[in-house]
Design a protein that fits this description.
The N and C termini lie far apart (about 75 Å). Helix 10 runs parallel beside helix 13. Strands 1-2 form a two-stranded antiparallel sheet. The protein has about 350 residues and is an all-alpha fold.
Length: about 350
């Protein structure tokens, strides 16, 4: 049986009942796939006979050596980055497809996959327009990190973290969807969309929109900065002081140093809480995905800001004015540095009033 027998919603969150009994399937799955690879009917039967969580986990493990080989062959360590916006939705879609094929109620899951698809489209588009899918494109942080780590140690880091841990993490953050599949099996009102489900789904969509606006503000700023550096002319709607500073401090970025990162982390925390709410528990084992995501963003943001602070002299002051993720409530200094901008002077010249900036 692919899915555990769950009698209550709380059972759906039990690691001992819904995960451990199915881990042995992981060992047999590769051989079964090899035996059935050329028979679509057998593959479909195998798909439905295998626990969907095990299938997802196996796929994440399968991808890890591919990421490793490609990254080492090309000496480009952004292979997982290229799949970051795609894999979580693939995992979520897998759970939803499994539920449909198993005849389970899917209204909640259908809402979830719709939001996950929008999330993927936004992140994939933003990664594409920044050149992430261009041949040879690599996250600049990997190159800098290689300066601090010897080649043998970096290879171990690639094996353990870049290729394996990150691949598994992208599987783990979607495990609340598996819990929702089990909740649908309980049936009754638990399988139908409720007011709480609407709140969670709207919150997720709101966070995706927040990411979209933050990304666009940063993109517009970077494009204006490139134009300014190339032509020495300040583009409309921008100020020279802001462009000379080198990094965006206006809009959402005047409230949070990383509003897009803040929303991104919140998305997977909200999904985790949605899974807990669906199964009437305060917490469950799927916290591993959300917690791992938070740890990763804390570490990567710390490293990013360390690089940025060395590049831009005013960034340390920006750190004092604006919170990393959550807005600061203990400072009166504006995050957009408007207090440092000179106020216009009013002068009389030939009977006319002229405004000048110092």
């Amino acid at each position: 049986m692919a899915l555990p027998v769950v009698k209550t919603l709380i059972d759906c969150s039990s690691f001992d009942k819904t995960v451990l009994p199915y881990l042995p399937q992981l060992y047999d799955l590769p051989g079964q796939i090899l035996q059935s690879w050329n028979n679509p009917v057998e593959l479909q039967n195998l798909y439905l006979a295998t626990n969907p969580l095990v299938t997802s986990f196996a796929f994440s493990l399968f991808l890890a050596p591919l990421f490793l080989v490609i990254s080492e062959f090309n000496k480009n360590y952004s292979q997982v980055d290229r799949m970051w916006s795609i894999l979580p939705t693939i995992y979520n879609a897998h759970y939803v497809v499994f539920a449909h094929m198993s005849g389970l109620p899917t209204s909640r899951l259908d809402n979830l996959i719709a939001i996950s698809t929008v999330w993927s489209l936004r992140l994939t588009f933003n990664y594409w327009r920044k050149g992430g899918y261009s041949i040879g494109s690599e996250d600049y942080r990997w190159e800098i990190l290689r300066e601090y780590i010897s080649p043998p140690l970096f290879f171990i880091f690639n094996v353990a973290f870049i290729s394996l841990a990150q691949s598994v993490l992208l599987f783990l953050i979607t495990t609340p969807t598996y819990v929702m599949v089990l909740a649908a099996r309980v049936g009754g009102m638990a399988a139908e969309m409720s007011s709480a489900d609407l709140v969670f789904s709207r919150a997720l969509m709101g966070l995706v929109l927040l990411e979209f606006f933050a990304d666009n503000q940063q993109w517009n700023y970077q494009q204006a900065k490139k134009q300014y550096q190339k032509s020495a002319k300040v583009p409309p709607t921008f100020e020279q002081d802001d462009l000379d500073r080198g990094f965006v401090v206006t809009g959402l970025w005047s409230w949070s140093r990383h509003p897009n990162f803040a929303a991104e982390q919140a998305i997977w925390v909200v999904l985790y809480q949605w899974g807990c709410w669906t199964t009437n528990v305060t917490y469950n084992w799927t916290f591993a995905g959300a917690m791992g995501y938070l740890f990763l963003f804390q570490a990567s943001t710390w490293f990013t800001e360390r690089i940025t602070a060395k590049k831009y002299p005013e960034y340390k002051e920006y750190q004092q004015r604006v919170g990393k993720f959550i807005p600061k409530l203990t400072t009166d200094l504006p995050g957009d540095f408007s207090d440092q901008k000179a106020a216009p002077k009013v002068e009389k010249s030939n009977g006319a009033v002229a405004k000048k900036r110092r």
